[in-house]
Amino acid sequence: MTKYDEYGEKARILFVEEQKSITTIALLLSLSEKTLHKWKNQYGWEEQRRKFLEGKTSCHNALYELLNTIVSETLEKYRQDKELPDKDTLNFIKAMADKLPRVKNIEDLFEAQKQGEHKADKADIVETVHRYLTGQN
Fold first, then answer.
1. Which one of 28, 49, 56, 98 is at 20 to 30 Å from 89 when CA atoms are compared?
2. Residue 124 above 80 pLDDT?
3. 16: burial class by Cβ within 10 Å (0-12, 13-18, 19+)?
4. What is the pTM of this model?
5. Structural domain boundaries of the chain?
6. At what angle do helices 59-81 and 87-114 cross, to 10 degrees?
C-alpha cells in the first residue's frame, strides 16, 4: 500500500472540503509538505477546492428558493383552508428571512474576491456563512 493509498483521500478532503492548509495537513497526518504539494499538483486539488467553494456560494439562492417555497405553500394553505402555520414553520421563516441578507453580503464579498477587488480568504468566507447559518456567529 502506497502513502497515497493510505493518506491521499484524507489529505484531499482536508485540503478541498475542510480548507486546511498544506502545513496543517502535514502536521495532522505526519506527512511532509513536499509530498502534499506533489499530490495537490498531481491530482488537481486546487481546482477541486475552487469548484467546491463555488458550489458553497450558491447558498443564498438555494435558501431563497426554499424560503419562497415554504412561504408560498403556507400562504396557499391559509387562503384555502384558513389554516395557520405551525410555530416551527413560522420560526423557520423568520430565521431564514433574517439570515438571507447577511448570506448575500458574504457571497458578494466572495464574488468581489474572485474579481480581485478584495483579498478575502475563501475558506474564511465559507466558514463565516456556515457559522452564521448554524447560529454560531
1. 56
2. no
3. buried
4. 0.46
5. 3-43, 57-133
6. 150
